[in-house]
Write a structure and sequence with these properties.
- The chain is α+β, with helices and mostly antiparallel strands.
- The protein folds into three domains: 207 residues, Aminohydrolase, N-terminal nucleophile (Ntn) domain (Glutamine Phosphoribosylpyrophosphate, subunit 1, domain 1, 4-Layer Sandwich), CATH 3.60.20.10; 248 residues, Rossmann fold, CATH 3.40.50; 58 residues, no CATH class.
- The chain contains 23 helices and 17 strands.
- The chain is globular, with a radius of gyration of 24 Å.
């Protein structure tokens, strides 16, 4: 993934000083190279890691410019080389665009953003992949000029343009910890929707088409082997599309069920990665990953958590994510700065939970009888982790009642756009929020640092999982059964370093019994049992408990930094109320992944105010 800034300037280009500032702001890791591309109408600044960069193609006839960020793997496109090596993809996608229009470039197999610049019209058309993990922002900057960028921090380098904080944008962040759809923390700055196409002209951005995710009610039957074989075939095919055996692959491994499945698939595909795990020696994830790597014969190393704190890391992390979510632990971000740059690609089972196991969200959040009830249930499920309505009313001058009502109505409308099926509505909402923005933040950081490839986002693999019955996806039940049936050695690895192998074997027997019961009910009684047991995490998540702790020294220093910047919120929030919330006692208990969400959101808002409101 490249960090980029695309400026349509109508013969009023930015100076070299401004372009230099933009390049500096996009260089989130020290090893990134910064390049430029310029014509009389357009200026592009972008970063390059070892194996990844923008792909730019100029059509010799029309002079239109195709700009691709990310990767696309469509074997039908002209210029493809054995399914790997996407250097010609910008040209291939331009041919597709020329023949079928920009909407034909929506939702292709890959993770990408595509832009087509028409110099004659001074317009840009854009299209993206299904989930929109790689964020794109649009900003009109006066005199019909406009910008597409991967980070809103670049807007500060445009002379004469002063982006202002959006009260509604910061409400979204404080209310749910995430941005909502097209809104950002800045006024008149939009985030492009996923799986969509747009046209920008004279400073205006218009949505051309928004496609739905291909959820399906297909009945795969109740015979297990074909399902497992289909999953294995599609997963292996995906890996072979992305990698060749001669590639040097770095695989981020946690040792959980997703990692175990992915390690099995990699080995079956003939890929032998170098595995790495972030954490301390006493973390269960480290123990599990080491054991999985040993069983698979993969090399493995541990990267310790960075315990020191650098305020520059907080700024970079928030800028890279464009304040799209509450601030998350900086330890992983700082640890990434210590990684060697000697691999061709990085990979991991990122978003496998959301793609192969988000069914549990639809079961934990009651679906209700209509979209409005589902929206209420969704908000009621997550809102307790954030500041109360009363606390937000005290912070926001004039209250937040209208904002909260509008938010609920917007979620209701979004559910209707996603699907007609209640279960698919909730799953799609989780993908557009939690997957795209919360989990997507870590992915964007890794993709910027390395050339990251994510097999779980393969179109064919998603098509398959989108068609499976809820019972098989609940808490990734299908992965449990797959590991038990296909690779008993991986399934038998204890759940943590204090467990016994026998416990895992008993667990495997329980999985077989659960599947047998599910199969009997669906075959004989035709009544799908979606939940045969309670939710039980595969691993103890000691890494997350440790790194998310609000009591560690690094986070306490971050709180002090934020407290010193509280006066910057004046004019949009009540300073005394914000200080009161910042000084409020920290949540008790060890697991603060969710309980600290309100404080993390407030810190992100304060940093945004310091950046854009000073």
């Amino acid at each position: 993934m490249s960090q980029f800034f695309i400026y349509i300037h109508r013969d009023k280009p930015l100076s070299d000083v401004s372009l230099e500032s933009i390049g500096t702001n996009l260089k989130f890791f020290p090893w990134l190279a910064v390049s430029r591309y310029q014509t009389n109408d357009i200026q592009i600044v972008y970063t390059k890691n070892k194996s990844d960069s923008l792909d730019i193609f100029v059509d010799p006839d029309s002079k239109k410019i195709a700009i691709l960020n990310g990767y696309v793997i469509e074997e039908s496109l002209e210029g493809k080389e054995d399914g790997v090596g996407q250097n010609a993809t910008a040209k291939s996608l331009f041919i597709l665009y020329r023949e079928s229009g920009i909407s034909a470039c929506i939702g292709l197999n890959g993770v990408y953003n595509l832009f087509i610049f028409n110099p004659e019209e001074q317009s840009v058309e854009a299209a993206s992949d299904r989930l929109g993990i790689y964020q794109v922002f649009f900003a009109p900057v006066g005199n019909y000029n406009f910008v597409f960028t991967s980070s809103i921090v670049t807007l500060k380098s445009i002379p004469g343009y002063s982006p202002k904080i959006s009260r509604r944008g910061i409400f979204d962040l404080l209310y749910m910890g995430l941005a909502f759809e097209e809104r950002t923390i800045l006024e008149n700055v939009l985030r492009l929707l996923p799986n969509s196409s747009y046209r920008a002209y004279k400073g205006d951005l218009k949505l051309i088409e928004e496609k739905k995710l291909p959820f399906s009610d297909r009945n795969w039957g109740n015979v297990l082997p074909p399902l497992l074989d289909e999953l294995e075939y599609r997963y292996i095919t995906t890996v072979k599309r992305l990698f060749k055996t001669q590639h040097k692959i770095r695989c981020f491994l946690s040792g959980g069920k997703d990692s175990r499945l992915y390690s099995y698939i990699l080995k079956k595909a003939g890929i032998s990665p170098e595995c790495i795990t972030f954490g301390e020696s006493y973390h269960s994830e480290v123990f599990l990953a080491r054991e999985v790597s040993r069983v698979q014969g993969f090399s493995w190393q541990r990267s310790p958590i960075r315990r020191d704190f650098n305020i520059d890391s907080a700024w970079k992390y928030l800028y890279l994510d464009s304040f799209s979510r509450r601030i998350f632990p900086l330890s992983t971000f700082e640890a990434m700065n210590q990684l060697s740059q000697d691999c061709d690609y990085a990979t991991g089972s990122y978003l496998a939970d959301e793609i192969m196991g988000t069914s549990y969200v639809a079961k934990r959040i009651r679906l209700g009888d209509n979209e409005q009830e589902r929206a209420n249930n969704y908000l009621n499920f997550l809102r307790p982790f954030f500041y109360s309505t009363e606390e937000l009313n005290q912070c926001f001058l004039g209250g937040t009642a209208d904002y909260a009502d509008d938010y609920r109505d917007e979620v209701t409308a979004l559910l209707k756009r996603i699907s007609d099926n209640p279960y698919h509505q909730m799953w799609g909402l989780w993908l557009r929020s939690n997957a795209r923005l919360k989990v997507g933040g870590s992915i964007r950081a890794l993709a910027t640092a390395d050339c990251l490839k994510m097999p779980c986002l393969d179109k064919d693999l998603m098509d398959f999982t989108f068609s499976l019955p809820p019972a098989l996806l609940y808490n990734r039940f299908i992965i449990d059964v797959f590991l038990t049936r296909k690779t008993p050695r991986l399934a038998a690895i204890p759940l943590d370093q204090n467990a016994k192998t026998a416990e895992s074997l008993v667990r495997g027997l329980k999985i077989e019994i659960k599947y047998g019961l599910w199969k009997i009910y669906t075959e004989k009684l035709r009544f799908p049992i979606a939940r045969l047991s309670g939710y039980a995490p595969t691993i103890t998540s000691q890494f997350y408990v440790d790194t998310f702790s609000l009591h560690n020294t690094a986070f306490q220093k971050l709180i002090l930094e934020a407290l010193a910047m509280v006066p910057c919120v004046e004019g949009m929030l009540d300073v005394k109320s914000v200080e009161k919330l910042m000084k409020k006692g920290l949540p008790s208990g060890n697991d603060q992944v969710m309980s600290g969400s309100g404080l993390r959101s407030l810190i992100a808002v304060i940093f945004a105010a310091k950046s854009f409101n000073s």
